[in-house]
Structures are given as C-alpha cells and as structure tokens.
Amino acid sequence: MDIRIFNNTEEIAQAASEIILNKVKSSPDAILGLATGASPVATYKKIIAAYNAGEVSFKNVKTFNLDEYCSIPASDRNSYYTFMHENLFNHIDIEEENVHVPNGNPENAEEYCASYDEAIKNAGGIDIQVLGIGRNGHIGFNEPSDAFTAGTYKVKLTDSTIEANKIYFDREEEVPREAITMGVESIINAKEIILIAEGTAKAQAIHDMIKGEISPACPASILQKHDNVHIFIDKAAASLI
Ligand code: GLP
Predict the structure, then answer these.
(1) Residue range 90-130, pLDDT digits in tens
(2) How far is the CA of 54 from the centre of ligand 1 (A)?
C-alpha cells in the first residue's frame, strides 16, 4: 500500500487528481471508477480546474460509479446521480452516454446488477477506482458482514451508515435504507485504487483497513491484497496507525 499522510484537503486533492489526470492524459479513453461523498469533492474540483485550463479532455473517458441509493429517483437532489453531475460531470466534456451511475430502482435488481458488472467488463475494466471509506470500514456500500461480496448487488444499509447520511436529508424518514453497490470483488478488480479519507471519525476504519486482519468485518481491509493502491489521508485519519 502506498500510504501518504497529508496536511490538508488541498494536498490530498492535488496528489489524487495528479494520478487521475496523468492517466487520462496518457490514455484518453481511460475507464474511471468514481465515488460520491465529501472525500473526493476537492479532487473533482482539481480535475475540473485542469479541464478548464485546457490540459485534458474527457471526451472518450468512461466512468462507472460505485453506488446509488434505492427508493429515491435519479433526479432527487440527494441521489448520487445528481451528486456526480453537480460535482463533476456538468463541468467537464464527458459524454452523458459514457457516464454510468447505478440505477437505484431497477425492476429486476439481480439482472440489473449483473448487467452493470458486464458493462464494466465490456468496457475493459476500471483503470483507476476512487474510493472513500465509511466510519465502519465500508467501501462503496459494502457494509461489514460475514463474507466479502462479489459483484454489484442490492444491499441493506447499516444503522451507522444511515446515521452518517442523515445530514444530507431534511427528514430522517427520507434517508434511504437500501442501495445498489459494486461488490468488493468489482472494486478490487480495478487496476489502480485511490482511497481518500480525512478526519478522526475515519481513524478507526483506517487503522483496521491497514493494520487489521483481512476480514469482511472491515470490508476495506481487502485492499491489503491489492498491489496498486494509494491511501491518501490527513493526520487526523492517520492518528491510530
Ligand atoms: C457513503 C458512500 C461511500 C463513501 C462513504 C464516505 O456511504 N456510499 O462511497 O465513501 O459514504 O463518505 P464521505 O466521503 O462523505 O465521508
């Protein structure tokens, strides 16, 4: 693991965006796996700035997002579809047909999830996957459990995740209880992974991911097995390692 501890959000975003931008510059048809949440927002801002400066084009880039809430439409202000458009896609020259955010309300979840994995495979697999981490060690929406998950699937969110997501919703009843997420296997199939985390709330999860045993009780611990993973964190998130 390439573990780097930075002073602030700006430095993390600089390092993470550099890897992504270099990939897109050298492979203009790169496949990017993207994440929502607060963690990657500054990185997306750097990417937009590089695009605005004419340094890079996303015309031929394809993206696959990790996850999406069930029970709210893609048009909802809290959907990950909306999040990605507001924080990245609306500001770069990516083609909408090349953007993939899971459908949170598929008619047949099993068939839909299999088709999402198939689409990633057909595109050639993910070159760089951006990841955040949940306070309980989840990646995407792969919550702690008894077994590592495989491909994309529909998951019930844990109380800790529902609690963490509450801040985005007006009323508690609106917070989705389920999501569609790439499985752990879909995630580690990516050729390169950048995980970003900041703050003391993430410190235990970061400790367990790096120093704990590889176990589905901390889904992110699977990253120990990957040979090309960058862990970009601040001092607070690194405080227990
Ligand atoms: C959500 C998302 C994850 C994200 C995590 C951390 O649960 N499904 O993909 O990594 O939250 O979010 P944040 O970066 O806001 O702390």
Answers:
(1) 999 999 999 999 999 999 999 999 999 999 999 999 999 99
(2) 30
Q: Domain map of the chain by residue range?
A: 2-234
Which pLDDT score, from 0 to 100, does residue 164 have? 84
8 A C-beta contact, residue 136 and residue 106:
no
CATH topology of domain 2-234: Rossmann fold (3.40.50)
CA nearest to 207, candidates 134, 131, 137, 159: 137
Pocket test for ligand 1, best of 36, 178, 193 (most atoms within 8 A of CB): 36
Q: Which two tokens stand for residue 133?
A: 């981490």
Residue 104, ligand 1, Cβ within 6 A: no
Virtual CA dihedral for 171, 177, 180, 181, nearest 10 degrees?
Answer: 100
Residue 86 CB coordination number (10 Å): 13
Q: Hey, whose CA ends up nearest to atom 1 of ligand 1? A: 37
**Mean pLDDT of the region 67-94:** 96
Q: Point out the residues that are catalytic.
A: 67, 136, 138, 143
Q: Rounded to two decimals, what is the model's pTM?
A: 0.95
CB 67 near ligand 1, within 6 Å: yes
